[in-house]
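User: Hey, quick favor. My workstation is busy. Could you predict this chain's structure for me?
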Amino acid sequence: MSDAPQWPTARLDEIARFRALAAGVRGAAVTERVVAAPFDDVWAVLSDFEGSFGLIEPDMRRVRVIARDGEHIELLARSRWGFRARLIGVHRPGWFWAQSRFLLLGMAATAAPDGRTRVALTGGIRIPGRAALMPLGVRRAAVGALGRLDRAVG
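Assistant: No problem, here it is.
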């Protein structure tokens, strides 16, 4: 038996963890919304990278999953302007964080006690070699994406 003091522990939901991670990226704007649908329905739409994801994020004309190993995921994305990005990151229930050389995409979701789902998004154009994003239009784009998500599952 140890006489060491017991330190308090804190449990963070995926949204709180997401906000903490995004806080370390200068220029990252986290936009959050409560969606009137159950978590499983919301996450299924957000995680369908090769299908419904493009409806939520219309800047992504086409996304293809090129590798998946447990939580590790690699995506090949093509924007509506023809730019390509190979995104590497982590994908699990309620959590997606991936980046390429010039792009960062992040999503988090957690079930609300009333059966709805809290969703948070961030992303943008990365400044190579720095933990920073160009914040131009990011919040407006995220508000639009969350509105499209709400309509898709609502």
